[in-house]
Amino acid sequence: MTPLSRIIRTMIETDGPMGIDRFMTVALAHPQHGYYITRDPLGTAGDFTTAPEISQVFGELIGVWAVAQWQAMGEPQSFLLVELGPGRGTLMADLLRAAQVRPHFGKAAKLHLIETSPVLRAAQAARLGPGATWHFSLESLPAGPALVIANEFFDALPIRQFECRGGRWFERLVGLQGGGLKLGLAAQPVKLGLSGQDGAVMEVAPEREAVAEALGDRLKAQGGAALVIDYGHTVTAPGDTLQAVRAHGFAAVLERPGEADITSHVDFEQLGHAFRRGGAVVPPVMRQGDFLTAMGLAARVERLAGQLQGGDRENFLSAARRLAEEAAMGALFKVMTVHSPRTPAPYPFGVS
């Protein structure tokens, strides 16, 4: 049993079973033992790898997107360049390097990073150098037009789960089993006003939608655009997508809280509704492979691969294929843009 397991057990003994959303919040963000608070989870020595760590081309193409959108906004002399959950700072470093083709972009950009992990803040500072400002949430960002990047950010925000049993809906809760010695799932009847097949699971993400709505409101009021990249589905549908990952493999969600990443697939349909409630414009979602291809993946890969030989070249090409091929990340991962009504629709969204 982990130290956090004991803390959660005490919370349940005191307050009763907790929702999946509260369990995720404690497991990931507890101030002493939370997963994201205590470690760098990325890379071979960590638990998972994200696209920016797989290939520099990913961040570079997002840099091309950011420069193009800044130009479409009229090249403001000052704007906020914001990343939600910046990891080690790899994506932003690659973005800024690619953006050097337009020097005025770098001069105009004011870098702001939304990060709660002290370990990852240190990694970001080491990689990006001076000039960044860190925040715990969107609320403390200064005023001004913004370009916002969120790669694998929304999947880690807490969800609630509901299961249909015999025509009735129950919320899944985390309780105690085995004489109070281990964590297990419990259920509490609720009224959802929905029909469902027996065994169907519905997931809702109030915190995820609250962040999207707030960001949509900001973009409407102050201008700019956001790029959201995550794994998930484009149409709301039943299904249990809650998962834990440890040492690059799936783990039991309740087994070792604080020592495994816990995420769920992003429902892009509901996320889009939340952005629209905030006042942002939401073009149709693209698959990651299609987005990267439209941004010039093939040409960039060919140019960089031409500078490599042997195993280095093959490893580089393999990493690039992993980003875009349908059987790898190209189809599961989706790319959504949202923008101010006063801002042109970002390329390549809506381009036929």
Question: Topology of this protein?
Answer:
Elements: H1 3-15, E1 18-19, H2 20-29, H3 35-38, H4 51-54, H5 56-72, E2 79-84, H6 90-98, H7 103-108, E3 109-114, H8 118-128, E4 133-135, E5 146-151, E6 160-165, E7 168-177, E8 182-190, E9 201-204, H9 206-222, E10 224-233, E11 243-246, E12 249-251, E13 261-263, E14 266-267, H10 268-278, E15 286-287, H11 288-294, H12 297-305, H13 310-324, H14 326-330, E16 333-339
Explained architecture:
The chain has 352 residues and is α/β, with parallel strands linked by helices. It is built from 14 helices and 16 strands. It has helices spanning 3-15, 20-29, 35-38, 51-54, 56-72, 90-98, 103-108, 118-128, 206-222, 268-278, 288-294, 297-305, 310-324, 326-330, and strands spanning 18-19, 79-84, 109-114, 133-135, 146-151, 160-165, 168-177, 182-190, 201-204, 224-233, 243-246, 249-251, 261-263, 266-267, 286-287, 333-339. The strands form three sheets. Strands 2, 3, 4, 5, 10, 14, 15 and 16 form an eight-stranded mixed beta sheet that branches. Strands 1, 6, 7, 8 and 9 form a five-stranded antiparallel beta sheet that branches. The protein has a three-stranded antiparallel beta sheet with strand order 12-11-13. The longest helix is centred in the first third of the chain and has 17 residues, at 56-72. The protein is globular, with a radius of gyration of 21 Å. The mean pLDDT is 95.
